[in-house]
Amino acid sequence: MRPLDPRLLRHARAARGYLIFTVGLGLAVTALVLVQAGLLAHALATAALGTGAAVLWPTLAVLLAVVAARALASGGGETVALRAAATVKAQLRRQLTAHTLRLGPAWLGGQQAGEIATLATKGLDALDPYFARYLPQLVLAVAVPVAVVARVAAADWISGLVIALTLPLIPVFAVLVGLHTKARTQRQWRLLATLGGHFLDVVEGLPTLKLFGRAKAQVQVIGEVSEAHRKATMGTLRVAFLSALVLELAAALATALVAVEVGLRLLAGHLGYQTALLVLLLTPEAYLPLRALGTQFHASMEGATAAARACDILAVPGPATTPAARGTLGLGAPAQVDLRSSAIMLNEVCVAYPGRDGLALDRVSLAIAPGERIMMTGPNGAGKSTLLALLMRFAEPTAGTIEVGGVPLAQLDLATWRAQIAWVPQRPHLFASTVAGNIALGQPGASRAAIEHAAALAGAAEFIEALPAGLDTELGERAGRLSAGQRQRIALARAFLRDAPLLLLDEPTAHLDAITAAEILATAETMLADRTVVLVSHGPAWLGPASQVIMLDHGKLAALVPS
Predict the structure, then answer these.
(1) I need a labelling partner for 402 at 20 to 30 A (CA). Which of 80, 129, 450, 492 fits?
(2) Structural domain containing residue 468
(3) Can you spell out the DSSP letters for 306-352?
């Protein structure tokens, strides 16, 4: 881990004001350290001369004020740094969530959902020690030793030279120990991410595991991963404690060396009493920030490792950050199109997924005119879902181009483009909200009447009325209390409610009986007359004639049948 990760600061611009203020307080603490040592040395030297208390009171009063100011500056620095940490965590979480959504299911399919969830919660929460203690201590570790060496050298150049020569021992030992700790901390974080991901997968699949009698076996797996994480954590803590011992020993030996040479010269009369006191008081202050920095480095490493992983994810190029999108029209401003009047053209489009042999789509050319009814069919793995992913910009063409109204798709604003699309996947996700909230997910602010109308169109009104609170019934995550067909109808109602000119239906009737499927397709054909609809289906198709029937086989366009 680097002492300061510039990527973290780049993604945390909102916290820069707090950090600048923290640096200012650190510099104030540095000045107060020097003033405090000078006043204390003066007070002790004056008291040794046997002068009255009246002479000491002004110095002691100022010393007390300096000590209080130092405490306030130190506490204030930590408070401001905690605010910076809260700001950074909130900003990183927003950026991580938004970027993950931009990357889409194609990227998420190769990740552990539990790892992302752990990273966005406990992982980023561990940034508090990094900002509240490590970064302020980093400022002090640079400023205080330099200031102390300069002040001591001004009073006694020999002691200043000894301190300057022994100071590098602390960071050298810290780096050597840190290199060993880095690998342990990264392993600890990987195990924590694995534990979080596996636990989430087990919870989601618990009904299936219990059905097949495999729940107890997963308890053992979770126990093994938890034990491995415990051992990794304890190993990291042992290294941290040993590093503290090494740094304390090095600092103690260096301080003793200065004390011995100062004492010998003081006895020989080559050094004044007040100067000797000043050197002895300032010498520990030179090593203290470096020792504390090593301790805070280990305490903050988990948060810094998690933040580095978050920055790695944010660096993954998404649809909105492609070179074509950045160079839009030569001006940097994204183009705008309306799918109600603009045709979609695919020209010799190829898609290849990393780590997979062959092309998911192989030189597919296709035209989708506004208002068309398109039926897409083909065996599993033919490329149907990849074609839908291209239209939603969850995937990007490896070769070929996609144009909308004559404008390259990569030049269109991602959010505006997706706002014109409604999508019903094969396995729709319902969230921990009310039935009405799930239907209105893609159309925030929709009226109650509009939600009820969409539910009726999707054939969901009857079973929704039978629920305890109707549309206001709370559904758990993934709505496990509903059947697959009921979940599919709510997803269809969500798509019907969304006023999107392009509707993508991926096996929308897969979990419905034949009569209900025919009713929904008939409703869709009537109610979506002004929209472009692409239907992926192995079973029932449009009751009326489709504008085009697209047949895919192994990524190639096997047949294109116009109506």
Answers:
(1) 492
(2) 337-562
(3) HHHHHHHHHTS--GGGSHHHHTGGGTTPPB---TTT--EEEEEEEE-
